Amino acid sequence: MNSNKFTDYTYLEIRELIDAGCAAIVPTGCTEQQGPHLPVDFDTWFSETVALEAAQHAARSYGIQALVLPAMPFGPTPEHRGFGSGYVHIPHPLHEECVYHVLESLVVQGFRSIVVWRGCGEHRLQEAVDRFNAKFNPGCMACLPSLPYNEIWRRVADPCVPGGHADSFTTSIALFTRPSSVRVECIPSSRSREVDWNDPELDFTKYSDTGVIGDASKVSAELGRELWQEVISNVAEIFRDALTERVTD
Predict the structure, then answer these.
(1) DSSP structure class, residue 166
(2) What are the mean pLDDT values of the chain's consecutive 10-residue runs (249 residues total)?
(3) Is the Cβ–Cβ distance between 65 and 21 less than 8 Å?
(4) How many angstroms separate the CA atoms of 114 and 116, rounded?
(5) With the CA atoms of 109, 239, 218 and 157 taken in that order, what torsion angle do they form, in degrees rounded to the nearest 10?
(6) Best exposed site among 97, 157, 204, 243 by fewest CB in 10 Å?
(7) What is the pTM of this model?
(8) Residues with Cβ < 8 Å from 84, sequence gap 6 or more?
């Protein structure tokens, strides 16, 4: 398998890969403001790129074969509407329903193991995954892993630097992986106010004047390189653990 991109193959080749036991990875992304210094596609790009590179790592290191679907570019993003532009908002129920039908499309093709990889921690998809598993497992199982990014930041960088959105973690990785996308001169130097993540009417404009949640100023391309390596190896392990769980027939 020279590529792990679902879209690189013909339908007949995909059929052969499914028959050989290939799994599927479904990244979800979103289009939303990323502070004044990063493009609005970051979460979508990040979700798909991490999934692709981690799947390659899992293939090399653990013999796990998986096809990565294109990242869904839109999702729930109501907390960003106050900034007035640069977002596409899909309500949570519609987003969940869309993901559910993606999973259903994959199982009817014959996939038996699926990972849903979220591009945003605010994507509430557990109900859709549970509903799918209740209907199709045994036979096929979908998994919704937790995101490891905060733990990686605390281990690799400075745990005293707060994060949350368009922060030093995100910006450092962008500086390493695609530096031309970063408006370095626009990186805010100030921190946001502490966020109430349980606020049902979460609005980032209550906590940040720039769109950054946390602190985006403690950044470098070298730090981004270290973070990126940890992200890929950690996510590859997550894929390994998720996709080696046996589905009872």
Answers:
(1) S
(2) 93 97 97 97 98 97 97 95 95 96 98 95 91 95 96 96 96 98 97 90 94 96 98 98 68
(3) yes
(4) 7
(5) 180
(6) 97
(7) 0.94
(8) none
